Amino acid sequence: METKMALNYQGKSQKRSAVEKSINAFLIVYLCILLSKATVCTTLKYVWQSNPFNDEPWYNQKTNKERETFKILRMFTDFLSFMVLFNFIIPVSMYVTVEMQKFLGSFFIAWDKEMYDEEIREGALVNTSDLNEELGQVEYVFTDKTGTLTENSMKFIECCIDGHKYRGGISEVDGLSHTDGPLKYYGKAEKCREELFLRALCLCHTVQIKEGDNVDGLIVNSGPKCTYISSSPDEIALVKGAKKYGFTFLGLEDDYMKVQNQKNEIEKYQLLHILNFDPVRRRMSVIVKTSTGKFLLFCKGADSSVFPRVQQEEIQQTKVHVERNALDGYRTLCVAFKELTPEDYNKIDNQLSEARMALQDREEKMARIFDDIEKDMHLIGATAVEDRLQEHVAETIEALQAAGMKVWVLTGDKMETAKSTCYASRLFQTNTELLELTTKTMGDGERKEDRLHELLLEYHKKLLQDFPKNRGHLKRSWTVSQEYGLIVDGSTLSLIFNSAQDSISSNYRSIFLQICLKCTAVLCCRMAPLQKAQIVRLVKNTKGNPITLSVGDGANDVSMILEAHVGIGIKGKEGRQAARNSDYAVPKFKHLRKLLLVHGHLYYVRIAHLVQYFFYKNLCFILPQFLYQFFCGFSQQPLYDAAYLTMYNICFTSLPILAYSLLEQHINIDSLTSDPRLYMKISDNAMLQWKPFLYWTFLGAFEGLAFFFGVYFLFQNSSLEDHGKVFGNWTFGTIVFTILVFTVTLKLALDTRFWTWMNHFVIWGSLAFYVFFSFFWGGIIWPFLKQQRMYFVFAYMVTSIPTLLAIVLLIFVSLSPEILLIVFKNAKRKTHQVTKRLPSSGTSTIFMLSQTSSNHSFSWNE
Description:
Layout: H1 4-7, H2 18-48, H3 52-55, H4 64-68, H5 71-86, H6 92-110, E1 125-126, E2 140-143, E3 150-161, E4 164-171, E5 184-186, H7 191-203, E6 208-211, E7 219-221, E8 226-229, H8 233-244, E9 248-253, E10 256-260, E11 266-275, E12 283-289, E13 295-301, H9 303-306, H10 315-327, E14 331-340, H11 342-357, H12 362-373, E15 378-389, H13 393-402, E16 406-410, H14 415-424, E17 432-437, H15 439-442, H16 448-466, H17 469-472, E18 483-489, H18 490-497, H19 502-518, E19 521-525, H20 529-540, E20 548-552, H21 558-563, E21 566-570, H22 577-581, E22 584-586, H23 591-628, H24 642-652, H25 654-663, H26 669-674, H27 690-714, H28 729-751, H29 757-778, H30 793-798, H31 801-837, H32 842-853
Parallel strand pairs: 2-16, 2-20, 16-19, 17-18, 18-19, 20-21, 21-22
Antiparallel strand pairs: 1-22, 3-4, 3-15, 4-5, 6-8, 7-8, 9-10, 10-11, 11-12, 12-13, 13-14, 14-15
Helix pairs in contact: 2-5, 2-23, 6-23, 6-25, 7-8, 10-14, 11-12, 13-23, 16-19, 23-25, 23-27, 23-28, 25-29, 27-28, 27-31, 28-29, 28-31
């Protein structure tokens, strides 16, 4: 449990999509409708039976047992009977269809060839199918930097020894044995200091050598017969960089590290202790013993963690190089050493042994000892390693921002390095005003909290002036007047989250959160893994509960991946911990664009339509059954045959909506990719709000009324055949059911924008199957049925010309609102296109252009 992943692991939380929450809300509404229908029918039954003739007509006298039954019990029994009769309004089969849609739909992500990476020969991975639609609702994207935005492919650029720069290049991926150009020296340090620095690079690491083996993990060829492997690509780059300057690490054998120096001599160092790197210390150290008996401590780490532990007069000459390299976007590490006396080493050895054997507070004790050991060191120099940006990262971030998402970068890197990456990836624009909450802006004095409070109030006031209150409630609103970016580091976050007083800490968090939400982009640097999860949780729990998405590639990103609503793992070079703990995994950051803007958009539209359609068709199905009770004395007489009741949701109407929810593309994929603003049209769960839900409910109610009363008026002349035979109640129910099945199926056909052979097959095939089944079910005398009430009912019905004409007419009447709506939308769209194409004069042309350009200053809420 002392591994990095275990120490920073955060327990999994149950993730539920916004669609599931909407389904539950709609289900409560329909449950209330069910209860109200049963209550109304039960009440009216006893009102109707209050007339003795209705309650006990001469042809249906009650038995003594029925007369003596307790009235309340009879009322309760009748209520339950009506509940059973109307229970089909609850779309139980919808849950099965939704799960099938999610499971089958997830294969389209894995099969997407555009998300396949030739380098690693892998495509996208779906670890859970429950959150497909959530990909279309993302408002905040939290991303790691190293390995996520960058390639995590380190290239040794230069080093600095005692303030003297040494520039050369070596790629840690290609395994080449030559330098990228001649080595350039900008003045030289003393020979002994150069060798000490290079020995430190060869000894202070956890790199291992494998000869002639194919191993899992990060592999780099160090020569024709051996490979360097390590959990960190930085270490391999540094070891390879030392090799270019003449010091070669030859491996670890029997606790002895072998190094070949510039004179081709083999030096052996006994490895005594490794003080492992952790996100809090941000450094690592080794204690070795030389062949002459000296004890040496070598340490490398971030400048913020090494500078306070070395002699202050040694810092300045190296600090200049570190800051310049950071501004150039390079990853920097500082290298220090300390010589230990035998007495010091024995004391350290005993302390470490005791701490490692402690049963309680082991981690705290080890941390204190490490802190004591790594003091009073001497700074030797610093290194600069380049981590190149992945391809199309800038375009992807721009697309996500254009889609209304806010992108935050959460990284453990140095601020200057991370800032440079943010500019390169276009997270920060040239006109973005940066607000900083870092140790530099707050200083090192005792008034840190006071200074933090001043900065928070200052930034809050500035942002409130540029964002008026009337815009504060608008989500995803962008302005072109002034953009703000926030930079905050880990130590400041600790001060915000862990203030001495809970009330002050809560106030800090509130102001800090308001500042963050009003900035177009946020960079959090020098962060521990658990701080990343804290930031995600802070935004996730804000008012409105915005949908969050976290992207990372390593074990240190697992916590924030688990905390966000949707976790995306990058199949990078730091193992597969992030990919295995994520909901979805993609090879590169650029694939996020299609995953969200295309797959997420389409999945949300499909499942939202599926949910609304199920509630709609069940209301159409059961409303005529409810109305029929007013004409049968509230006797619980079913309108439809039992076979139709059973087959309606299972066979007659299930496959068309399933095919629609898997294949529909209401907007083609190229348009979704090229115009990210389309993503905002479905934001905030737009298709499952109460307004569209009420539209579908009223549509279902209108069609249910049209089915029932249309057939009812048809039956005013009950002799619908030439020979004068009268149709009965089962024919009445069958006509209603036929109109119902054709109407709800054709409604889906009207909604379909992307036709495939499968859509044609299931839509027209379902209608054909219904006709075939009705002929088959009513054409045979079934021996297992006591009553053959459907015998030849359907066959006689379709032979009546007036009945067929009435069915066609009622189908058209029922669909007329939808047809009129489609005609109106098409006419409006054509008018809009013509208006955009017809600038009648120069003046109107200028007006149109200015109106178009001003669109960017308004919210894209439609």
